[in-house]
User: Fold CN hydrolase domain-containing protein from Accipiter nisus.
Amino acid sequence: TVALNVCQQGTRRGPMQERLSCMARNNSIYVVANMGDKKLCNSSDPSCPSDGRYQYNTDVVFDPEGKLVARYHKYNLFRREIQFNYPKEPEAVTFETPFGKFGIFTCFDILFHEPAVVLVSKLQVDTVLFPTAWMNVLPFLTAIEFHSAWAMGMGVNLLSANTHNISLAMTVEVMFLH
Assistant:
């Protein structure tokens, strides 16, 4: 990902990304968000949807200067994500910070070799950012137990942020350090 500073360059990337970029810049922090992203395509692409655009479940990361330093399009879509497309190939997205090498993926991706295991085993990240809408399912897929076990088993820090929707068995969770 090119280090684009949306805060300084205006709304070319849209008002939400501009706001996130400025939030990072104005507070000198990293900001991570999950959002929809669309990419135009044309009829020369046989997989191009009829409306001429792909829509992705996307994570973005802005650095303390407001630069976009990572963008990840979710590859392993959960069955309810019919509004999204997935990229042709899984993406292994990393970025460097003064406090380590980070990787990022979303929710259901944690259950698959790509990108989750690849980020740790091949790309040697020490921390994974993990935006999620995780439904706690007993007995094996409760968020806190599963995510902490994954972090310990992989030997990485997992910074997890879950949505809070009790009616869907989604509860807030915290980070897991190995």
